Amino acid sequence: MTTGPGNDPRDPQGAAEDGENWREEERARPEHPLSVMLFSWMRTETFLRLFIVGVGVVSLGAVVAEWVLSLQSGEPSKRLIGFYGIFGGLAFALAVLAGWPLGAALRRPETHYDPPQHDKADAAAKGGADE
Amino acid sequence: MSELFGMLASGTNPGFVLLVAGVMAALIRPTALRGVVLIGAPVLALLMVLYGPGWGVDAARTDLLGLQLSLYRIDSLSFVFGLAFVVATGLIGIYSLHRREPLEDGAALIYAGAGLAAVFSGDLLSFVLWMELTTLASTAILLSRRTAAANRAALRYFAMHMISGLLLICGVAVIAMDRGTIEFVQLGPMRDGLLVGILDPSEPGGALFLAGLGIKAAFPIVHAWLKDAYPEASETGSVALSVFTTKLAVYALVRCFAGFEPLIWVGAIMTVFPVFFAVVENDLRRVLAYSLNNQVGFMVAAVGVGGELGVNGAALHAFTHIIYKSLLFMSMGAVLLRTGTTKASELGGLHRTMPFTSIFCLIGAASISAFPLFSGFVSKSLIMTSVEYAPGVYIAWLGMMFASAGVLEHSGIKIPYFSFFSHDSGKRPEEAPFNMLLAMGAASAFCIGIGVAPVWLYELAPYREAALEYLGVDLFSAKHVLHQVQLLGFAIFAFLLLKRMHLYPPERPGVILDADWLCRDLGPASWRGIGSFWERASARRARVSEAVDRWRDWLVSQCGPSGWIARRASVSAGAIWTVIILGATLAVIYGAVR
Amino acid sequence: MIGLEFLNIAPQRFAEQAPALVVVGPLIAACAAVLAPGRRWAWFLCVGASAFAFWMAVVLASEVARQGVISYAMGGFPAPLGIEFRVDALSAMFALLISGMAVLTAVFSGESLETEIMSSKHPLMQGGFLTCLAGLLGLVLTGDAFNAFVFLEISSIGVYAMIAMGGARDRRAYPAAFNYLIMGTIGATFYLIGVGFLYAATGTLNMADIAARIPTLTSDRSIEVGLAFILIGLALKAAVFPLHQWLPAAYSHAPSMIVVFLSATATKASVYLIIRYLSTVFAFDWQVETAFMAFVLAPLSVAGILICSMQAAVDPEIRRILAYSSVAQVGYMTLAIATATSAGVSAALFHLFNHGVMKAALFMAIGGAAIHLKSQRLSDFAGAAKSAPWTMTAFGIAALSLLGAPLTAGFLSKLRLIQSLVAADWGWAAAVIGLSSLIGVFYVGRIFEVVFFRSEPEGGSAVREAPVSILLPLWLLAIANIWFGIDATIPLGLAESAAGAVMGATTLSPAGAP
């Protein structure tokens, strides 16, 4: 059983308060060898570019493969070739871009639902009517 | 020994074992001993499920005030759900070994036991009664986090589920009066000896039951409890919560309303709208709650289709979903444990010191996004196919396609990306404790195992023949796989492009308004609005809210010890009341005799 | 019938006198207790006399189960001139409940009185308790209308005195006792006036005799007026809303011991008399009665259920919460009785039994905690489950039962109540019970939140684990709550045979019908 900062679910903030110390300790913690092996090379810009190209190639390849398959089988395809790809890309973009207006419309400060300070006593009284 | 086990397994609902274990776990202080209970009980329950009585037999009947209850009945439908519950209970047991919260561990086991007992109930009343117990136990899980926010959420959660429980109880009562029985009675033809679609939602009893289940399954508009409560539980509590309540509702929907077409539309809406909320939500566990809502939507749609394909889809998707969703909640639980937060705006770059958790989270993300060779693909395909070939619901199918891309966005990318990758938050937490890694590893193994060898899962399907046929012909057909690869590939491509073009909305701290706005904002605000009508002269917010508070206090005080009612409780008032009642009685009696 | 028949080992001649002994035993012991040299002696006497009464009650119950109604002529003077003790299944059930609760209360009283009452007054307290016990037992066994009044007064006098004795610890007990005295006297007087009317019309005081003569009378208003007075007087004693005002104060300020006993038995004995008059003395299908039940009893019950549940939901004192809940529960019983069906009466009796078991456990747990905690404010029980796990777990079980959670006795009795109401086509009344259960969720939930989930105050909770002599009866009751929630054979058997005994002969007609 390890005890670490933030280990106590009752007081996640409290843990942060009691120490710049553990923050220091945290910064000092070296990267895990496994993550060096698996993930560290992903941080390069080259990899990112290659990854984008790779994803694009795979996706387009899937469309081409579908086209080839439909030619081979001879029967007409039920939907447009590449329908799933186009739909998926557009749907994803729509969902993500909707985040801008929705965030503006629906986001409130984190304290939005916290009981107002001035009637904290009332809120407590509501919970127990006995304070 | 084996005879003893045979006796136990043949007539005892495995849920009871978990219930007893739950009580024990709550009382046992030594952590090691509690660990034995937490893991031993699910193992025993698993054996009991596997070596239980024959399917479709009422193995334990009892009489409750003249009502015949069937406490233990397995068939191919309840078997899938029961198996998933037991496996999940075991995973939760391992996952919570490091904790020293006997009360919470006990509540989780009781929650699981009640859920299991409900699934294996052979009649409507015992099902509903076990559901009530799940409500109590899950509220206890929430309360045992012991933060003010969790307590408030627990109260809201409890109120919502009491309403749902009341609807269910009333539904059963009405059904019992109409039919004269609470047994499962098949409406229409039965296939493969499986009782599904046993209630008619156009009857009052069925409608009440559907309404109660609707709340439990988090149908649109009444879904807010889900995203409200689950993220407030502790790191283990939210895993337990994510497994049972909604899936019990799905089970009951299959059992009672399979083939009720409007459910397709309800399900489609359920899959679509959480996508938007999940995009803007900052708390990653809340994102997971939205994603849970969305996944349950897929199941509900499959229930609406009904038939062999739909029932198989709903049941098997519930199975895989239980495992990959608990895997995701477990990975976020590990993050919460180690960093104290799951807010996307405060996380990032954790893969440097939590590589195992990152990998497990990625496996869960791939599963929920239905990548081929992961478990989500295996079960979601059934649902998508069933909806695609259902007549007249093309729009719903398109909506669910959209939602599939949305799942990839919020669960497949957002969850792992913002916690483990993304920009470096500077946090260098320790890797999760070994028991957590073990639980996540086991869940990951399930996800990959099912994805690679789906026959293992399809063997469990309620309609086994149909499932195996689908597996042989459709599942891994080149066309189907290519379609999925296209969908996911282009979506990921879109993500990369949007991210590079800085069009991806940044994660910002904040609270996202949802349908709970109705009761948490609009309600108080309208009171304030009424208050401001009176206090227009000084429309200061403080004054107005004082009026609201006064009104509430007035109601409380009138019922309270110094209130209007109590003040009238003096001796003289008592005497006067006596005389008044006597007068009324005499009047009534004279009226009756004349 | 109740699994205790093995106790029926008294010699035949002894058993024949059981109806008298069950009352006389505690009465003699009461005198002896007052004169006892020390508090230990008084306590032993108290436990012994209660146990004796319970034994006799078991003997009676098994005799009744064997041979039907037992008629016992007090002093050898035959009815109708002499006083007749008439024991049927209904009386036997109440005798069992009352004497059984008395045993548990007597055991509980030892440690509980220690802190609450000056030790020199313990014998008085125990004497009062035994007087009350004798009165209640006589009340449910007698077959004589006037004799019932006497026993009603005997039991009440004991109670008044005992409530007032709480004044040393909580001065609010004095006005509570005084209020109860006034209200109780009004109730008893009303009852007496009613009996007077009946006597004037029929010329007899024996209940069976009255019942036999009423049909021969031609439209005598005095019978109807007598009925009204009797029922109102008893309703006051049974704390039917809005005649319950004495109850919350009495329950929240009296010594724990008497509250435990009262909550489980006292109002119940008056409910017994109500049932007795409605069914045996008069006939349920009499239109006067159906009108009374449909237009007076049912609306009052509904009002009581809802309003008192609300009051319980917001009250800050834990004992008063339970007291208000008791009034609401009495409402459940009278509501079921008001259906005038055999199922309704049986459900009411079933709930009455279960409610006795759960409320006694709740008050006993509070009493156990009160040994170390003077305050009764709910907030002072914060985190009590940590410092007194055994006491508070039993409390929690009983509270769940009060809420009507499945697998507890409370659930079954609520189910039974709803069944009977639905069967009588009173669906709306079943809805009222559902609604009040929802309010019940709030007050029980509030208690749960404070006791189990709120963290302890600075310096630890003042609540300590209760001593063994309290935990023992407390856990017996807690286990009974669960046991009767799983296997309801005993209470259900008692309730059904009791309902059958009084409802069997009468024709059942739905209330409101002519």
Describe this structure in words.
The complex is a heterotrimer of chains A (131), B (594) and C (514). The longest helix of chain A has 29 residues, at 45-73. Chain A is mainly alpha-helical and 131 residues long. Among the domains of chain A are: 19-76, no CATH class; 79-109, no CATH class. Chain A contains seven helices and one strand, in the order H-H-H-H-H-H-E-H. In chain B, helix 4 packs antiparallel against helix 10 and helix 14 (307-339) packs antiparallel against helix 16. Chain B folds into three domains: 2-170 and 195-500, no CATH class; 516-559, no CATH class; 567-594. Chain B is mainly α. Chain B contains 25 helices and three strands. Chain B is globular. Chain C has 514 residues and is an all-alpha fold. Chain C has a domain at 299-502. In chain C, strands 1-2 form a two-stranded antiparallel ribbon. Chain C is globular, with a radius of gyration of 21 Å. Mean pLDDT of chain C is 84; it is low at 505-514. Chains in contact: A-B, A-C, B-C. Chains B and C meet through helix 6, helix 7 and helix 25 of B and helix 7, helix 9, helix 10, helix 12 and helix 17 of C.
Question: What is the fold's blueprint, element by element?
Answer:
The complex is a heterotrimer of chains A (131), B (594) and C (514).
Chain A: H1 12-17, H2 20-28, H3 33-38, H4 45-73, H5 83-97, H6 99-106, E1 107-108, H7 120-128
Chain B: H1 2-11, H2 14-27, H3 31-50, E1 60-64, E2 67-72, H4 76-95, H5 102-119, H6 124-143, H7 148-179, H8 204-216, H9 224-229, H10 235-243, H11 245-257, H12 262-280, H13 284-305, H14 307-339, H15 355-368, H16 375-388, H17 394-420, H18 434-452, H19 455-458, H20 464-475, H21 478-500, E3 511-512, H22 517-534, H23 541-559, H24 564-567, H25 571-593
Antiparallel strand pairs in B: 1-2
Helix pairs in contact in B: 2-3, 2-5, 3-4, 4-5, 4-10, 4-14, 4-18, 5-6, 6-7, 7-8, 8-11, 10-14, 11-13, 11-14, 12-13, 12-17, 13-14, 13-16, 13-17, 14-15, 14-16, 14-18, 15-17, 15-18, 16-18, 22-23
Chain C: H1 12-16, H2 18-35, H3 39-67, E1 70-73, E2 84-87, H4 89-116, H5 122-141, H6 145-165, H7 173-202, H8 207-213, H9 221-237, H10 246-253, H11 256-281, H12 287-314, H13 318-338, H14 342-370, H15 384-387, H16 389-403, H17 409-423, H18 427-453, H19 468-486, H20 489-503
Antiparallel strand pairs in C: 1-2
Helix pairs in contact in C: 2-3, 2-5, 3-4, 3-5, 4-5, 4-11, 4-14, 4-19, 4-20, 5-6, 5-11, 6-7, 7-9, 7-10, 9-11, 10-11, 10-13, 11-13, 11-14, 12-13, 12-18, 13-14, 13-18, 14-16, 14-17, 14-19, 14-20, 16-18, 16-19, 17-18, 17-19
